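Ticket #4471: structure output looks truncated?

Reporter: J.K.
Steps to reproduce: submitted the chain below (503 residues) through the standard prediction queue, then opened the result file.
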Amino acid sequence: MLFPFLFFILLGCFASWLVIHLLLASGFGQGGDGETQHHHTHTGVIPRIGGVGIVVGFGLTYLLCFFHLNAGDEQTLLHFAVVGGAAGAFLLGFIDDFRPLGAKLKLLAQILIAVIAYKCGLAVDQVRVPFTELIIQLEFFSLFLTVGWFVAIMNLINLIDGLDGLAGGVGLMLMALLVYLGLNQGIVFSAILALGMIGAILGFLFHNFPPAKVYMGDSGAYMIGYVIAALSLLNAEKGAVLAALIAPALALALPIIDVAFALIRRGIKGLPLFRPDRGHIHHRLMGSGLSRRNTVLVLYAISLFALVGGLLSFAERGRYLPIFIGFAFVIILFALRGQKISAASLRVVLSESLQSRQDTRNALYLKNWLVVEAERADSAKHLWSDFRFVLKKMGFCRAELKLGEETRAFYVPNTPHEDLELLWTETHHTHGDVEVELALYGEKDNFSESQFALVADIAAEALANARSKWKEVNGAPLDFDSVAKEADDYKRQKARNLYRPTY
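Returned output as attached by the reporter:
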């Protein structure tokens, strides 16, 4: 039994590693992640082509299974749904990696993929009540639960893809759990596909573990998420539906909790719920002094602990799961003791957040305005004047911006610029070949520490997005000497004619 396991893992691993290696050697996808994203933890340009290697490794595994399927197998449609849906999820993410799609369009496409999977038989159609033989038929609610399951898992994997090796490692652990569930249920097809995906992810991690040379992109994240959701439902075909779904859900405890806190955090602060930020667990660990590699290893350990919970929810019909949950609760309590969290501190944070929501919305409006102006601006000099206007309206009294070797400063008259009590922050990120440093200052009477950090982050994001828009429109990175290229159509020329910089 060990040799077939190793064969499928090694096949997927070698195929994935080789494809990614060849793509990197050829330079393919070097423009896929053309600009460093403001909230990403990596620096420089990293191609988002890892999903191509993963889909090849997974596809080879399926082809071997396909040639051994019985032509009269009544499960063939289900098998095609697993692989066909994975291909659809990969294609959706691949397009988005190179030609970004809107959030609404991506959600619609994900729902369509999930509905097709449901029509092919991959459905949450019944639930067995734990510790009993009672089975509840979901009937009308089956479609909604199935679609929600697919969309949630696909996006969970994508949302944790913010640190080298993290999404791949978590996906690898989930696939190991699915191998166990497939073998336990006697569904060999499911176990083999999970083994192939283990190999494909391993091949990708050779290129992705810190420091990463490649990212999986939305293509890899969506596909891994779809396969997790689909194989979970395939494993549920023999009746233990709830256990087959709870097990992977528990194993995904880390991203589920991280995303839940992110939504709550953004909602309290008045931010868009799906706006990226630097408040995720891996950001906080790195902020505490851990290196990227050690941060990933810590999160792997947490995910492995959650994986044990997933196994216990399935083994012995969940008999030992309450013990695990109690043990996990004790660990969480000890972890929180060192965070100085109390009811009073939570009330202060909530009160400050609610009071500053208007400032946050104002900063977001100004950020969007600056990006629009970057598309119309005729020179870096004029765009800098627009950015000064944004900083003033956000409440900053002083700023220093360095692009490459040149520095520009901004001061609001009649403010104590030399006061040592001023708050400040700096961001360092690279766009193209131009190094960027931004320092922002504000008076403590006008900001709380947390609100200053938030508005400063929005200001830095406004600059990053404006520079990305400038490069997209004009084909070159922005520095202080940049001049917009000549408009190539009447509409753009008209917009440029109407542009008026704020001096």
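Triage note (M.O.): checked the attachment and the full token line is present. The CA atoms of residues 427 and 460 lie 7 Å apart.
Status: closed, working as intended.
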